């Protein structure tokens, strides 16, 4: 059942994003920011943890999960270091995922011999 919930929740998020891309004049970058900010807001309200327990990877993999991860790191850093943690927490919590994306993207570019479009 976990796989089914992850599949339909992740699919619903993708459907919502696709509708935004097709029916509005929002640029993809703005939609990405909207998703990250929405994940952060849902996290602040305390709704993301139960949502993630229900949906699993369907909730943690999309950009909503990245926003939640940032807010979780900020909250922990503020509890530990005070106001300075507001600026450090998001970087610390998202560093591994961001680094992995950069490294694997670079490795993929080496394997597939990427080049600029002409």
Description:
The chain is mainly α and 118 residues long. The chain has one domain (2-111). The protein is 82% helix and 0% strand. It is built from six helices and no strands. Helix 2 (28-44) packs across helix 5 and helix 5 packs antiparallel against helix 6.
Task: Please supply descriptive tags for the structure shown above.
118 residues; mainly alpha
The gross shape turns out to be globular
Q: Which structural category fits the helices and strands?
A: mainly alpha
Main sheet: strands, sense, barrel:
none
**Number of structurally distinct domains:** 1
What ranges have pLDDT less than 50 throughout 5 or more consecutive residues?
none
User: What is the tally of helical segments?
Assistant: 6
- Ends distance: 47 Å
N-to-C SSE string, H for helix and E for strand: HHHHHH
What is the helical fraction, as a range of percent?
A: over 70%
Strand content: under 5%
Query: On the 0-100 scale, what is the average pLDDT?
Result: 88
Could you tell me the radius of gyration in angstroms?
17 Å
DSSP strand count:
0
Topology of this structure?
Blueprint lengths: L1 H22 L4 H17 L3 H8 L1 H4 L2 H19 L3 H27 L7
Give a summary of the structure in a few sentences.
The chain is mainly alpha-helical. It has helices spanning 2-23, 28-44, 48-55, 57-60, 63-81, 85-111.
């Amino acid at each position: 059942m976990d796989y089914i919930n992850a599949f339909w929740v992740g699919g619903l998020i993708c459907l919502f994003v696709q509708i935004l891309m097709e029916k509005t004049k929002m640029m993809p970058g703005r939609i990405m920011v909207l998703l990250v900010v929405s994940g952060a807001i849902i996290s602040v309200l305390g709704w993301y943890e139960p949502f993630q327990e229900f949906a699993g990877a369907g909730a943690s993999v999309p950009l909503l999960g990245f926003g939640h991860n940032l807010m979780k790191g900020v909250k922990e850093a503020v509890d530990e270091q005070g106001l300075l943690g507001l600026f450090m927490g998001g970087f610390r919590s998202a560093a591994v995922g961001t680094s992995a994306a950069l490294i694997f993207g670079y490795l993929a570019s080496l394997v597939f011999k990427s080049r600029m479009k002409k």
